């Protein structure tokens, strides 16, 4: 499992992932606040099926939700557990593929798949398999929350890069610069991403480059796949409505 390209990408990034944020703890709290408001219940049994190093999972646990996190990356999962303990919240976590979740049917009140994780799956078959698993582990009337990049805009413009982001150390020093280069496939939907981090090193810069591939999955197409997986009442909510940094698709598990 850890030999898949996304797992290698996030294994390699796990120690430095927080450096993509100007202030990781502030972002964790902000994302947790936004997702909590959309859940509509207290102390939910919640699965974050692409938890990474815990940004959304810890943010939700800080609200009192009973959070389980899974991810393809063993290093990311291990760090998420450590970071949760450091903040005195409980995070149950496991290494798992979202297409084959290791939980019984109807285990959770809500499933979160945030931060553009689903588009690591590159075919409709794989996305549908993951969404079907998310519905399987949801209780009746459980809620799904999926966030992606604003791919309708991305597909219109097909950018070649992202703007640089700067993380500044707690003392104002030790700045880290992060940006991405995107190389579009001939189909116009998939792209190879090169993730650059420039880290200070003895008065110079050390450059780390990680590579992965994504599917620019537009809103209508993802909505259709969510319906095909058996979810009901899909609804897109934009960042200006939710305070979350990406568009969010909400849907219900149904009866």
From TrEMBL:
Name of a matching Pfam family: Methyltransf_25
The residues forming the signal peptide are none
Keywords in UniProt for this one?
Methyltransferase, Transferase
The UniProt entry, under InterPro entries, shows: Methyltransf_25, SAM-dependent_MTases_sf
For this UniProt entry, the molecular function terms from Gene Ontology, in alphabetical order, are: methyltransferase activity
Q: Does Cell cycle appear among the keywords? A: no
An example GO BP is: methylation
- Indicate the segments forming the Methyltransferase domain, all copies: 47-142
Superkingdom classification of source: Bacteria
Instruction: Return the PANTHER family for the record.
Output: 2-METHOXY-6-POLYPRENYL-1,4-BENZOQUINOL METHYLASE, MITOCHONDRIAL, METHYLTRANSFERASE
* The name this protein goes by in its record: Class I SAM-dependent methyltransferase
Source species of the chain: Streptomyces camelliae
């Amino acid at each position: 499992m850890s030999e898949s390209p996304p797992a290698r990408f996030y294994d390699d990034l796990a120690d430095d992932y927080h450096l993509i944020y100007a202030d990781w703890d502030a972002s964790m709290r902000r994302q947790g606040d936004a997702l909590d408001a959309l859940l509509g219940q207290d102390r939910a049994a919640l699965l974050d099926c692409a938890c990474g190093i815990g940004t959304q999972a810890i943010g939700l646990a800080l609200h009192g939700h009973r959070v389980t996190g899974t991810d393809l990356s063993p290093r990311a999962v291990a760090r998420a557990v450590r970071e949760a303990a450091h903040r005195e919240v409980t995070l149950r976590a496991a290494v798992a593929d979202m297409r084959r979740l290791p939980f019984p049917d109807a285990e959770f009140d809500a499933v979160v798949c945030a931060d553009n994780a689903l588009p690591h799956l590159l075919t409709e078959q794989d996305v549908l398999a993951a969404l079907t698993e998310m519905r399987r582990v949801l209780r009746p009337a459980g809620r799904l929350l999926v966030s992606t990049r604003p791919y309708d805009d991305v597909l219109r413009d097909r950018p070649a890069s992202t703007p640089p982001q700067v993380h500044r150390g707690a003392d104002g020093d030790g700045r880290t610069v992060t940006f991405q280069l995107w190389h579009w496939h001939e189909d116009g939907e998939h792209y190879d991403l090169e993730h650059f981090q420039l880290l200070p090193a003895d008065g110079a810069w050390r450059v780390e480059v990680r590579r992965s591939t994504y599917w620019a999955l537009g809103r209508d197409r993802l909505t259709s796949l969510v319906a095909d997986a058996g979810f009901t009442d899909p609804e897109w909510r934009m960042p200006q409505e939710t305070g979350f940094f990406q568009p969010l698709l909400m849907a219900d598990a149904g009866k």
